Amino acid sequence: MMRNSRIIIIIAFSVLPGLSHAQGHAAAVEPLSDDEQAIVLSLSPLNLPRKDPTNELSGNELAISFGRSLFFDKRLSVSSTRACASCHDPNLSWTDGKAVPEGGSRNTPSLWNVVYNRWYSWDGGADTLWAQATRPIENAKEMGLDRFALTKRIYNNDDLRRGYETVHGKLREPVCASDPAITNETCLDPERADATKILVNVAKSLAAYLETIISNSSAFDKFVEGLRTGNTGAVQSYPEAASRGLRVFLRSNCHLCHSGPNFTDGEFHDIGVSPKDGTLPTDPGRFEGIHVLTESEFRSDGGYSAAADPKLRFIRAGPDVWAQFKTPSLRNVVLSAPYMHNGQIATIDDVIDHYSNATSSTYRHVHLESTVKPLHLTSIDRSNLIAFLESLTDPVLIQNGNFRR
Predict the structure, then answer these.
(1) C-alpha 365: how far from chain center
(2) What confidence tens digit (pLDDT) does each residue in 83-105 have?
(3) How does pLDDT run across 222-259, given as a tens digit for each residue?
(4) Residue pLDDT, tens place only, 264-301
(5) What digits encode the pLDDT tens for the residues 163-211?
(6) Which residues contact 298 (CB under 8 A, 6 or more apart)?
(7) Which fold has domain 61-213?
(8) Domain locations in the chain?
(9) How far apart (Å, rounded) are the C-alpha atoms in residues 96 and 90?
(10) Each residue of 100-142: pLDDT tens digit?
(11) CA–CA gap between residue 295 and residue 157 (Å, rounded)
């Protein structure tokens, strides 16, 4: 189940519920044009990722093991009642199944294939997976455990301290975190630097684990491999409804944003998701994310990064990025309802309805994507498109955070 420190899980496609759209066969499907086939071949395979150069623990087996234990450990929250897995439940395709979590304003994204992301969070407020992992730990609306309390908790719990020291070396007694007379504000370096480094080490261990959550073996992948190798049996076994839906996907230009083997361009767009009450959007999205990233002490070009990433040189927070949000991957998308950054679209059918009737938004965004035009899909088109999206599912069996083949 481990291959190059990446976990890949596959079981029979037939056990996954809710795939009725992808079943059944009808008349012959129109063949792909040469241009269409070239696009399809660019969508698979999703190869195993390289190690993250900004995280020296990327691919480290000890860090992966420690990170996994932390991910399911409720002691990583100030109340000891919430773990990372509380919102990213593996049994809910690494989401919480809610529109937005309690006290939050944005939908909890799935963790499938996060290792391939260029930016993290809906607004791109972090530029590495480990930097993103620091955010919910200290966020008062999420886990609320500041770095000093985190240091104290790791030091005072034997199993946490052993796990930490196995990966990161000896942990010295944290005076600031253990002496109630010393506040976080009055705690001076090197104690403050120690607490920050411990937070980073924890986040990098979590990231090493999160890198292993990979999905890359769907019915669509088998179909593309058949195209690439000339295996007519593999091509013909692909559901015909999904084949028709693939053509809808291509001819509707969905691939312009949902591109590449992870079905996302990794960038930010305004697709006209109107607030339910008909008001103008108040969430600045990417505009805010760039400011958060610019001011972050954990930027990939900062002192805690193992290697600088040059992509930060090209980001600018202009008005054109207001209310833009990151393009999510479509892999396993039928398992991660509800949808959009605010979770206000309940079903995959409703998502398709949004794109089919793009001009029906209650307002027109100033910077609405020029590619977002009403598709006017027929009911058959919609059914086939859903069948295609279902074919991007990599069937998995996950029990209590353990992966089983």
Answers:
(1) 25
(2) 999 999 999 999 999 999 988 89
(3) 999 999 999 999 999 999 999 999 999 999 999 999 99
(4) 999 999 988 877 777 777 899 999 999 999 999 999 99
(5) 999 999 998 887 665 666 666 655 655 567 788 999 999 999 999 999 9
(6) 126, 128, 130, 131, 134, 200, 203, 304, 305
(7) Cytochrome Bc1 Complex; Chain D, domain 2 (1.10.760)
(8) 2-50+218-404, 61-213
(9) 9
(10) 998 889 999 999 999 999 999 999 999 999 999 999 999 999 9
(11) 33
Of 45, 6, 20, 11, the residue nearest 349 (C-alpha): 20
Do 2-50+218-404 and 61-213 come out as alike in CATH topology? yes
DSSP state of 100: S
* Fold of the CATH domain 2-50+218-404: Cytochrome Bc1 Complex; Chain D, domain 2 (1.10.760)
* Spatial contact of 303 and 51, defined as CB atoms under 8 Å apart: no
Q: Taking the CA atoms of 270, 271, 275 and 279 in sequence, report the sign of the dihedral they define.
A: positive
What φ, ψ does residue 68 adopt, rounded to 5°?
A: -65, -45
Residue 16 CA, chain-centre distance (Å), reads: 21
Task: Provide the token pair at 223.
Answer: 């179909």
Give the whole-angstrom CA distance, residue 386 versus residue 297: 42
CA distances (Å), origin 21, targets 138, 242, 318, 385: 42, 8, 42, 9
For 193-222, b/e burial (b = at least 16 CB within 10 A) is: ebbbebbbbbbbbbbbbbbbbbbbbbbbbb
| pLDDT at residue 3 is higher than 50 | no
C-alpha distance from residue 15 to each of 221, 238, 385 (Å): 18, 17, 21
Q: Of 168, 184, 172, 203, whose CA–CA distance to 304 is shortest? A: 203
Burial class (CB in 10 A: 0-12, 13-18, 19+), 405: exposed
> Directed axis angle between helix 379-390 and helix 348-356, to 10°?
130
Name residue 399's beta-bridge partners. 402
Query: Mind listing the pLDDT tens digit for each residue in 30-76?
Result: 889 999 999 999 999 999 999 999 999 999 999 999 999 999 999 99
Give yes or no for a contact between 188 and 36, defined as CB atoms under 8 angstroms apart.
no
Averaged pLDDT score across all residues of the chain: 86
- Residue of 89, 153, 113 lying closest to 398 (CA atoms): 89
- Type of residue found at 22: A
What is the model's pTM? 0.87
**Would you say the C-alpha torsion 390, 392, 393, 394 has a positive or negative sign?**
positive
Q: How far apart are the first and last CA of the chain?
A: 7
- The dihedral over CA atoms of 276, 277, 280, 286, expressed in degrees to the nearest 10, equals -30
**Calpha distance 8→133 (Å, rounded):** 22
